[in-house]
């Protein structure tokens, strides 16, 4: 029996842990396009900004893989899959046989149509450690002093923060009328925008880059509005999409991401998928979608690994959640937060200077929460969302300064203390 895992992110690695928990004997082969294995993607912006160091990037080490008797094929990009023959095809010509396969290839950056983009140095996406190295070297070698970040989502803002830590003057360009429009509401976006501007960042909204100019190296961009900005560095961070193109002719059902069931099985026997390359249920609205966050990838990988070795395990679905500090402002966004009262949702808010809290409810159950500058109760709100607790008996206390465990129903308190809620958050 040979288990093959494609992708060395958290989905792939947690699947390996599950497999080895049950099966210590059969072969496990990890195939990955990257040269670094077991590093934390969320830390690449911190590495660029010198807020962390190389030795702290790995959450799973080479020793871990050795101890677990895992063979590795790094820098091996899979380009095709023949499910009838149980064969993977790699870009380097290698053919890899499997008995059970996990696809955990994550997401890849989306790049929009921009005139003059090809053949210019100084233009990067920013989703891997190798991207981080390229940007770091480019800045050093060319003594770059300013940058344009296209895209005001979480990856764009985390990259902005890193570039500002290096002393660069950064301009964010965002197509929608505010930054963070997917993750946060207007009020939270305003607070974060103010904090960014205070630190010297320029924020341009309702606009995008349509043209790039330069002689081999980028020197100027033109916006849709006609405005021109001189720059030597452009980071494109307008979103990621499931990395599934290589499966086009495989017969596996793909919608936006790979379609999986609660056991993380694809539509083809013995082929499983987990993480950012899949789409599965959003627990709040019951819709199938890709929730591209670390904890979902870990949970899905864990479930996939168990099922690959025949141990029955089910993934119930996930919810969006993010906890990041942006421009010195700690923020949390959990669940669905951009819903409005007119559509039958109840919205509770608390504001005091730059502290902002918002809770969105439907039928007395919390479906989303935003916390800005005071993120103290994030774990409790998340637990209440996941467990779909009726909060009517303590709704008026939810945003109190001292809201805490004492207000919660006894059974829920017990679940949280015993770790049953955490299981969903791993
Ligand atoms: C800059 C940045 C910051 C982030 N910050 C946060 C955060 O604060 N919180 C949070 O929850 N999430 C964050 N995320 C998202 C989080 O990192 C992802 O959700 C998570 O890494 C997904 O895990 P995965 O295992 O599905 O895929 P990935 O981690 O993307 O791993 C995919 C793996 O597949 C390999 N691969 C891809 N294609 C092929 C192929 N054809 N052949 C072989 N191998 C292939 C890749 O080399 C890689 O090893 C961040 C992401 C980025 C880029």
Folded structure, characterized:
- With 426 residues, the protein is α/β, with parallel strands linked by helices.
- The protein is built from ten helices and 26 strands.
- The protein has a five-stranded parallel β-sheet with strand order 3-2-1-7-19. Strands 9-16-10-11-12 form a five-stranded parallel β-sheet, with helices on one face. Strands 22-23-26-25-24 form a five-stranded antiparallel β-sheet.
- Strand 14 and strand 15 form a beta hairpin.
- Helix 1 packs parallel to helix 7.
- Mean pLDDT is 94; it is low at 422-426.
- Residues 6-12, 31-34, 41-42, 44-45, 77-78, 104-107, 126-127, 155, 158, 243, 246, 275-276, 292-295, 297, 322, 324 line the site of flavin-adenine dinucleotide.
Characteristic key phrases:
single chain, 426 residues, alpha/beta, FAD/NAD(P)-binding domain, Enolase-like, domain 1, five-stranded parallel sheet, 26 strands, globular, binds flavin-adenine dinucleotide
């Amino acid at each position: 029996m040979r288990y093959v895992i494609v992708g060395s992110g958290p989905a792939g690695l947690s699947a390996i842990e599950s497999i080895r928990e049950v099966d210590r004997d059969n072969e496990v082969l990890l195939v990955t396009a990257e040269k670094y294995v077991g590093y934390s993607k969320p830390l690449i912006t911190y590495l660029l900004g010198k807020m962390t160091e190389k030795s702290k990037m790995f959450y799973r080490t080479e020793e871990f893989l050795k101890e677990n008797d895992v063979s590795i094929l790094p820098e091996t990009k899979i380009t095709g899959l023949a499910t009838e023959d149980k064969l993977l095809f790699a870009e380097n010509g290698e053919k890899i046989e499997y008995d059970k396969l996990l696809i955990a290839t994550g997401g890849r950056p989306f790049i929009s149509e921009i005139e003059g983009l090809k053949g210019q140095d100084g233009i990067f996406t920013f989703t891997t450690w190798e991207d981080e190295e390229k940007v770091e070297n480019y800045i050093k070698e060319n003594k770059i002093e300013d940058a344009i970040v296209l895209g005001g989502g979480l990856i764009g803002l985390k990259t902005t923060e890193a570039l500002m830590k290096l002393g660069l003057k950064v301009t964010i360009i965002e197509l929608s009328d505010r930054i963070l429009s997917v993750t946060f509401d207007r009020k939270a976006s305003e607070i974060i925008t103010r904090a960014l501007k205070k630190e010297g960042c320029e924020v341009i909204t309702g606009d995008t880059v349509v043209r790039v100019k330069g002689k081999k190296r980028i020197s100027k961009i033109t916006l849709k509005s006609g405005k021109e900005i001189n720059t030597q560095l452009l980071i494109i961070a307008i979103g990621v999409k499931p990395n599934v193109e290589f499966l086009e002719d495989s017969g596996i059902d793909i919608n936006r991401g790979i379609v999986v069931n609660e056991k993380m099985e694809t539509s083809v026997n013995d082929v499983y998928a987990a993480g950012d390359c899949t789409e599965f249920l959003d627990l709040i609205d019951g819709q199938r979608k890709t929730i591209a966050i670390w904890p979902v990838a870990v949970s899905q990988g864990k479930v996939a690994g168990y099922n690959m070795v025949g141990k029955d395990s089910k993934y119930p679905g996930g919810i969006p959640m993010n906890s990041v500090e942006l421009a010195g402002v700690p923020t949390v966004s959990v669940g669905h937060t951009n819903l409005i009262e007119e559509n039958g949702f109840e919205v509770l808010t608390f504001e005091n200077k730059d502290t902002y809290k918002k809770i969105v409810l439907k039928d007395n159950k919390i479906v989303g929460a935003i916390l800005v500058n005071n993120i103290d109760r994030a774990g409790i709100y998340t637990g209440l969302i996941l467990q779909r607790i009726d909060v009517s008996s303590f709704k008026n206390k939810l945003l109190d300064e001292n809201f805490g465990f004492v207000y919660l129903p006894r059974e829920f308190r017990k679940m949280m203390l015993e770790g049953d809620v955490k299981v969903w958050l791993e």
